Amino acid sequence: MSDVVKEPSMLLQKELIARNYDAITSSRETGRKVSSTFVPGNLNELLLCFGIVNNLPEINAIQNGMRKLSGDYIMTAEKSGHSEDVCTYVKADIGMMGKGNIAPNGKPFPNPDVLLLSYTGCYTFMKWFELLREEYKCPTLMLHVPYEGDGQSTKNMRDYIVKQLKEVIIPGLEEVSGVKFDIDRLREALRNSARAEDDLVWVLEQGKRTPSPIDAYFGGVYYIGPIFTAFRGTTDAIDYYTALRAEVQARVDAGQGPLMPDGTTLSEQKYRLVVEGPPNWTHFREFWKMFSDEGAVVVASTYTKVGGMYDLGFRHDPDNPLESLADYCLGCYTNRNLPNRVEILTKYIEEYQADGLLTNSIKSCNSFSAGQLMMMREVEKRTGKPGAFIETDLVDPRYFSAANVKNRLESYFQMIEQKRRGATRAA
Amino acid sequence: MQCFIGIDLGSTTTKAVVMDENLQVLGRGITNSRSNYDTAAKVSKQEALIDTRLTLFRRALADVPGAAGQVDAILADLERNFRHIQFLEQFDDLEATCIGNISGPRFEGIAGAVRDVLEETFRRLRDRSAGLFAPGARRKSDFFRDLAGADFMQVGEAVSKDAGLPFELVLNLYDKSIIEVENRPPAGEMEAKFLRALEAGTMDATTIAAPVQAALAIPLEETYVVGTGYGRVRLPFPKEHIRSEILCHGLGAHMMYPGTRTVLDIGGQDTKGIQVDAQGIVENFQMNDRCAAGCGRYLGYIADEMNMGLHELGPLAMASTKQVRINSTCTVFAGAELRDRLALGEKREDILAGLHRAIILRAMSILSRAGGVKDQFTFTGGVAKNEAAVRELRKLIAENYGDVQINIDPESIYTGALGGATFAARAALN
């Protein structure tokens, strides 16, 4: 494969991620404590208050997927008894442990000192950490975030989360780290978060332009990198989003589309899509190319909201620190009910002037996939724009059938083209 | 005249349709895809153009008083003779290729004897070939490979035995050569062959020679060709000449039945549920996910397991008196279930009825994912020719969607190519 062309923000992000892996793998020497936690409901600002390093198993699975290691890890996990239908993030993680638990920097991961489990809609998270707890015998701090089954949060839910933060999570982290909680430190981190969040939202909303200067799915997963992981609340994240914003602004000024991995820009945009569901990581570039070769750009996506729906107005708030952490967790995309997701998708189609909704349904992810077909039908009905449904997997390479995916995508793009040409003639 | 051509490169067969500027179908052609889409596209197109000539003959003969009432017989005679001439040409090619392939240490000292065996075999087969194309003769297949191969085994073995040579030697030559010949589209001008067919005919040449020659003189201009199907990327066409099979099937079904709103296509390796609007524009589609369970190949596999021909499955299933429940649409599991049921003493026809139901249940699930069945419903693809599958489909459509008109065109295997030809015509004419 040819070398990937990267923008300065991508290089900066790469350096940030490398630095975090180094912080994790050198924690035994530096004496820092390590927490494992998940992207949705990630309480990074709180971890910063205790000087705890944040290790995210989902990100490790993605890294291993993109580096073509996950297939082997998944088979290792299956050998130890994990079924073919289990979430492949989990199996990639378990398999990685079975193969020496080596981090992307080539050094072994230390055992976590604490498992911080913020439960935000994905039931598998609980089972995943149950397995890790068994393995590492370390304390697990569970933050139970009530599901927004009725489509909105209530004061009760918020109070319930704040109470858990005060009574379980903060004392637990104090005990693990030996550091006393300082709410002013949290306020400072939240202030940093909000600044980065403003820039991220600005970037994502540029998808409303024609041509769109961003790809909000394949490019978008890079854009959310720092803020969804170990950097939210840091000045590093502020710097990253300042740089990213400048790059996107430059493309807006030049009337250019997003930068492709081969160094070209996708400025001839024939199809504008909204995408629901996570991407496939094992064939990420091949998958992206199926879109860009046809002139398809993703103008908005829901996957880039799993770690927070900032575009709907939420910001971390230094004046209401614990309450805003609670609101953040409640509002993650994975914690929203089906009618709410339909509303969000409909709004994206309309506000981003998209040609339709593409659903990438993930074989091993029930929490994302359940109800997606119904959602798509409803969005089609409300917007009058055609939808399409493809099926792949997160990090299991066995479930990416390139010929079939390409076939459906091409059919979908031609269908959009045909509809656009109007009802009077079909050619 | 202007010809608009659609070619559908399927996993099993490749189909072509030729259409005129009034969107009337002039000819259809089909061939096996033979893992060589370039040749398959050429051969199917050639076949469709041959069929187009026959249509033009029919039109020309319609005005000839002396031919009244005999047009069908005349055309059948002409086509038979044409096919025979074409067959013999390919046969000569096969013989020359076989002889040309006699080389290497295996043939040392016996090359002459092998050559004699081949020449004698081909001589006998050539003599018998007239019978294959005699009036009323039933051919199991029209593909050259099948026609040439069937008798070769029998005659070649006998001739080898008489010559005291191992038949494998000859058979190996044949196997190697048939692939080469099959991947060369029949050579020579179609028009010249039709003229020879006319001369060889039993019909009164004085009445029909002039109109047939006049029809042959019409140039067939390949105005616009559209390719579709799994092999479409192999076509040496510019991108705008390639359409997805979803769109082609939707439009093809609309051309056959303009009232169509839902299309089900069960092909060799995929099953598609398509919704179209009143203009044949695709509104929605779903295809089988991740694996080809429940597609046409499923029946092919079952036929192999039961040591039957694919076309014998439907009729046998129709003879069932009770249905055995088969749960799996996984091809491999269905084979296991099949043997299990046979071991339990279930009848073949009853098991087959269950297998047909299993495949249609799978299709019903794809249809419901595609948004259900709306009136009218058009069923296409190779499986639409299977009466047992159609019977189950009718039952399940009635149970789930009530009174819906179900359209099945006898030429439904050409639906994708028909849609392709229509796209070609519209692209050129609009």
TrEMBL record, chain A:
Listed PANTHER family: 2-HYDROXYGLUTARYL-COA DEHYDRATASE, D-COMPONENT-RELATED, SUBUNIT OF OXYGEN-SENSITIVE 2-HYDROXYISOCAPROYL-COA DEHYDRATASE
GO molecular function, one term: benzoyl-CoA reductase activity
Family (UniProt): Belongs to the FldB/FldC dehydratase alpha/beta subunit family.
UniProt keyword annotations, A-Z: Iron, Iron-sulfur, Metal-binding, Oxidoreductase
Domain of life (superkingdom): Bacteria
Pfam families, sorted: HGD-D
Name of the featured protein: Benzoyl-CoA reductase subunit B
Keyword Metal-binding among record annotations: yes
InterPro entries linked to this entry: Benzoyl_CoA_Rdtase_B (IPR011955), FldB/FldC_alpha/beta (IPR010327)
EC number: 1.3.7.8
Automatic annotation (TrEMBL), chain B:
Keyword Ligase belongs to the record: no
Gene3D superfamilies: 3.30.420.40
Keywords for this protein: Iron, Iron-sulfur, Metal-binding, Oxidoreductase
Domain ATPase BadF/BadG/BcrA/BcrD type: 5-424
Top-rank taxon: Bacteria
Gene Ontology molecular function terms on file: benzoyl-CoA reductase activity; iron-sulfur cluster binding; metal ion binding
Known EC number: 1.3.7.8
Pfam families: BcrAD_BadFG (PF01869)
Co-factor requirement: [4Fe-4S] cluster
Catalytic class of the enzyme: oxidoreductase
UniProt-listed PANTHER family: BIFUNCTIONAL PROTEIN [INCLUDES 2-HYDROXYACYL-COA DEHYDRATASE (N-TER) AND ITS ACTIVATOR DOMAIN (C_TERM), BIFUNCTIONAL PROTEIN [INCLUDES 2-HYDROXYACYL-COA DEHYDRATASE (N-TER) AND ITS ACTIVATOR DOMAIN (C_TERM)-RELATED
NCBIfam families: benz_CoA_red_A (TIGR02259), CoA_E_activ (TIGR00241)
Full protein name: Benzoyl-CoA reductase subunit A
